[in-house]
Amino acid sequence: MKTVAVILYFWLALAGHTAGFKATGFHLYYGSEARALTKLNVKLAKGHVAVVDPRALTHAQRQTLLDRANAVGAKVLGYVSIGELHDREASDFAAFFKASNLTATERKLFPTPTAVEIGRNARFRSRHMDTLSVAWQRFVQGKAARARQLGYHGAFLDTVDTVDHYLARKEWSIPRRIQSVKATMQFIRAIKAAAPRQYVMVNRGLNLIAPKVFVGNATGVEIDGLNLRQKHASNPDAVLWENAFSGSDAWTRAKDAELRTIHAAGHTTVFALGYAESGGQPAGFFRQAHIVGWPAAWARSSTTLHRELATGK
Q: Which pLDDT value is given to residue 307?
């Protein structure tokens, strides 16, 4: 009985620590260069969240980083792309698709792996994927599960903005667009629900964060969004505003206001990532992030994140 009590106490303590985690710092690095990882290890402190790409790190590099995070009370999240498939992984997905035990309905919707693709991101050499595909969901969930097994404290769900292609896809009827938009939100929540104590951060996809999502063009319909203002057991723990504070158009102003409301509500933490390529200055960027209380990091460009550590001051 004593052993059971000790295990239960440890589990409750761990759960409480995760539930009460307060993010105070942010770092992001997709590479494996020794000096950048050493700098990241040195910077990690209590309340910090670091995003890395599990595919880039050796076992020793990963373990050193996780040991440091565990010692100081930080979290390390593994990168997982939920909306795009990089060219280098296309053959992996094709093999996975072929081996998947899919229903007749799924096979009819997506008869081949390439049928899941809806376009191309030439800048990052990847394909936009339809999250309505069960095979694609399973493929991505497998990556999130492997990251958990390797000891990561959660997942960084990138490329959620593929949903914008569904919203604007004129080849699809409004009901068809709604299917994929809803599938994306359900998919995010499914990843969180699969391991509730894991820390999940979403990147991009800001059209999903409000109470309602408009689906259509000149006309359309509104559907329920993730509504990060309200508590939901399977909503993500955090959302990253990439390229924060860099625009002044109506959409950006609306999202800025929404993110401030979300952060103030206290159910989902907002993080900020700024880029020099957008013309801003780090001093002004960090000042704005500090005013609203968002953990923040700065980088030269979204294309150099595998070569340089994006970090706070």
A: 94
Q: Is 36 helix (H, G, I), strand (E, B) or coil?
A: helix
Domain of 27 in residue numbering reads as 23-311
- Our CA angle for 159, 164, 168, nearest 5°, is 155
Given a cut of 90, whether residue 12 has pLDDT beyond it is: no
The predicted-structure confidence for 66-83, as pLDDT tens digits, reads as follows: 999 999 999 999 999 999
pTM of the model: 0.92
Residue 2 has what pLDDT?
40
Q: Quick one: which of 289, 79, 105 has its CA closest to 203?
A: 79
Q: Tokens standing for 292?
A: 């609203």
The confidence score (pLDDT) of residue 207 equals 97
Report the Cα 288 to chain-centroid distance in Å.
22
What are φ and ψ of residue 93, in 5° steps? -70, -40
> Is residue 166 within 8 Å of 184, Cβ to Cβ?
yes
Q: Is 119 left (phi over 0), alpha (psi -120 to 50) or beta?
A: left
Looking at the domain assignment, is residue 62 inside a domain? yes
Give the residue carrying structure tokens 């052993």. 3
Choose among 214, 134, 201: nearest CA to 167.
214
Do the domain assignments include residue 194?
yes
H-run or E-run covering 193: helix 174-194
CA 34 to chain centre: 25
- Three-point CA angle 283, 36, 18, nearest 5°: 80
List Cα–Cα distances, 214 to 24, 82, 201, 219, in angstroms: 33, 21, 23, 9
Rg of the chain over Cα atoms, rounded to whole angstroms, equals 20
| Number of domains within the chain | 1
Q: Are 272 and 245 in contact (CB under 8 A)?
A: yes
